Amino acid sequence: MNRVLVIEDNPDNMALMVFLLNKSGYRHVPACDGRSGIEFARQGGFDLVLLDIKLPDMDGNEVLGRIRSMEHGALVPIIAMTSYAMSGDRERLLAAGCNGYVEKPIDPLLVIQHIQAVLAASV
Amino acid sequence: MTAWSAIWSSNTLTRRLTVARSTMLCLFVWTLLIALSLSWNVRNENRAVMLQATSEARGHFNKDVAYRRWVASKGGVYVPVSSKTPPNPYLFHVKNRDITTISGRQFTLVNPAYMTRQVMELSEEQYGVRGHITSLKLMRPENKPDPWERQALEKFDQGALEYTGTALLDGKPYLRFMRPFMTEQRCLLCHAAQDYRIGDVRGGISFSIPLEDYYAIRKTNIVASAFWHLAIYLSGCGLIVGAGYSLKNWLKQREANQNQVAIENKRTVALLSLSQMDASTEEQLLDFSIEKTMQLTDSTRGYIHFYDAVNQRLSLSRWDENTQASCQIAEGVHHFELAKNGVWQRCISQGKAIINNNLEPSGATITLPTMHIELKRHLCLPIVDGETIVGVLGVGNKAQPYTKDDLHQLELFTAGVWQVLKRRRAESELARYRNHLEDLVLERTTELEASRTQLQGYYNEVSGAKVQLELANERLKELDKLKSMFIASMSHELRTPLNAIIGFSSLMLNGMTGDINPEQKDQLQRVLRAGRHLLALITDVIDISKIESKSIEPFASEFDLLDVIDESCANVALQLEEKGLQLVRHIDDEEIILFSDRKRLLQCILNYLSNAMKFTSSGCVEIAVQHDDENVTLCVVDSGSGISSDEMALLFKSFTRLASTSSTTPGTGLGLYLTKKLAEEVLGGRVWAESTPGSGSRFYLQIPKRLQT
């Protein structure tokens, strides 16, 4: 059973993702800000990270950089979730090391499909 | 000056007179000297002649006396008696006066006197020297003294030892010489009877030496002397006259030089005065110059006229006072065309001075106009400034003819006068300019001061305005930053709650939270639709605000157009299914690589597809792609109600919803407007639409394959 680290500050969105992941058969670890997300990531044991880019304590890009700089964080698949939706966000995040990109508001079915695709690609 | 000149002139005159007098005096003295010398020579010559003659006479006398003494010492000598030498009757008392030799020859005693007489006769006969024994106490009557001899004998009685003189004897000149006989012991032998005592003057012998030969020599000598004297005299006269002449010439030359110097001095002083007449007017300067011109040339007329080369006109500026007083030219008619004024015309056109020394009515070389002032002689010359002739200066009626010296003086003086005039004119012109300039400067200064004050005002205003503007600019920048942050923030903050709304309602509708009844499903669908609509509205509004504030930046990357079309088709798949519509793709499978803003292109395609679906109730929506080397053109075709030509004009406008559809179809009214904006301003392309009311519409999007960033 795959473990997914969800880094998301908004409780409603966190609830949505948790429900969606559980329903889709994934285990999850919730992190409500960047610092705790990085801490969980350091402990390891995740098959995927869902990363909100707008976090209260730090920028999602920084979190991405920290995880990628960890010994076992270099290869873990990370899917960025953002509600910025500016031109170039997708390309910039993919170039920075994300394996996937989801725009909020999400379409639950599309998100699950995307997660499955990313995990399949990373095996 | 004039008085001084007069004195100088009288001096030179005196000197010249003195030279003549000195010459005459020298000649006189020389003549006197030569005359004295000549007379002295003649006298000497005479004396020499007399001395020589006397000497000769003395010789004769001494010789005779010697013979007499010898005879006397012998007590007489006996000589044969002859007719020429008869016995001396005055010796009758002497014993043995006559003797006869044994041979019978008869001798008679000849005493010194007798011998002397006989020798004298012989001498006269042979040499022309006459001798004569004479005495005041005569023994023989032949010995009677003539008057001269008597005179001499009387002198001897008084103690004279010699007596000489000249006399004409038989019409010929003779030196007469006489010496006395003193009575000696021996004399008494014969003359005892005459009662002489020893030492008495007994008588004398006179000799008459003919002087003709001496005179001939004297004449020759005198003639020679006279000749030499004449020669020396004439040479001396020549020298004296020559020296006098030279001296006279030298004085004359010196006088001429001094006159020249005096005139030049005069000219220099005049020019100096002229240059110092700073307070005078130009007329006064001209009058002064004319006066000096006349003085320099001893003229009684003078004038200066100026010439205007441009108009070829001569302005008769100034005459000397007399002429000006008697001038009959009307006032104000002092300007003439040059061509009408002969002498001046020649003078100016040839640039040469003209001298006329004969303007008398009889035989005048030029004709003067009637009413012209009397003019006997005339000299005029051009006033020259560099190469240009600026006027004419002239003088007239000098007592003597005008010479080149006059001309020379005038040329020099005129040049000086013109320099002074020119300088004066330049100075006054300068002064005029200076005054004008000062006025101008004052005026400009005032204007500038006013302008400066005004400018200062403006500057203060502008400075104030600038400060305000800077503040406003700062505020604007702040606002702009705020706006960008606001937009970003809004985008995020508005989307975040929609994530929960749309996400959960989607989950519930998908039955992931359990079964829901149809009524709940309908209600959830409304929630989901409203959420999506709100999301679309938010997205469009934010995009438009970004485009309109020019804060949108295209993000170009390389991608395959087919991927974008696939993604957009996937996006609308659910809606298509819900509406029961078919999407038909007229697209080849070959990839079309673009370099453009992928997200915005996707947005445009989705907008077209959404629109097409909205207005198509049944049938199908078609999408087609065409491309060439440069551009790619997408076309979305619907089979909806179509758009009337009136409404075509309103397409692509903001917040415009067509009346025909607004009531039946949901929409923000921003979709096409945003598509047009994105296509034109971000993707560098264009949009257009074609429609046939009742049978559907075609929406086109054409963009360049490579976006020029």
Helix and strand layout, with pairings?
The complex is a heterodimer of chains A (123) and B (709).
Chain A: E1 3-7, H1 11-23, E2 27-31, H2 34-43, E3 48-52, H3 60-69, E4 78-82, H4 89-96, E5 100-103, H5 108-122
Parallel strand pairs in A: 1-2, 1-3, 3-4, 4-5
Helix pairs in contact in A: 2-3
Chain B: H1 2-73, E1 77-80, E2 98-100, E3 106-110, H2 112-127, E4 130-134, H3 147-157, E5 163-169, E6 172-182, H4 188-191, E7 201-210, H5 212-276, H6 282-297, E8 301-308, E9 313-319, H7 321-326, E10 335-337, H8 342-350, E11 354-356, E12 378-385, E13 388-396, H9 404-509, H10 518-548, E14 557-560, H11 561-579, E15 582-586, E16 593-596, H12 598-614, E17 620-627, E18 631-637, H13 645-648, H14 659-662, H15 671-682, E19 686-691, E20 697-704
Parallel strand pairs in B: 15-17
Antiparallel strand pairs in B: 1-3, 2-3, 4-7, 5-6, 6-7, 8-9, 8-13, 9-10, 11-12, 12-13, 14-16, 17-18, 18-20, 19-20
Helix pairs in contact in B: 1-2, 1-5, 5-6, 5-9, 6-9, 9-10, 10-15, 11-12, 12-15
